[in-house]
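hey so i finaly got around to running the thing on Aldehyde-activating protein from Primorskyibacter flagellatus. pasting the sequence first so u can double check i didnt mess up the copy paste, my clipboard has been acting weird all day
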Amino acid sequence: MPVATCHCGAVTLDLTAPPSEVTECNCSICRRYGVLWAYMPPAEVTIRTTGPTDRYVREGGDQAFQRCATCGCVTHWQKFDPAFDRMGVNARLLPPDILAAARLRHLDGAETDRYLD
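ok and heres what it spat out for the 3d tokens, dont ask me to read them lol
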């Protein structure tokens, strides 16, 4: 079972399987965070915390970006709508060998919301 963890280890995300692809999005928040997203159903991710977390919700937003309050690593995002069956896990928190095995996709989240490759 692959495990993504923040720098200090206070937040871990247990995945049922390694991601086959990860996405680099160029929207205003993702490019600032510098993350690679592994999109998966929330049922396939177990989130464990041993310390405080913070969340950011853009004004009028429909999702929360979570981070470790101790080391500041962005860990994941989730939509508020429980019917939305996808969340984003920051794949940069996975071990390098797992990340290296995933296909890298590029999403134009800033303009078209379409993959460029």
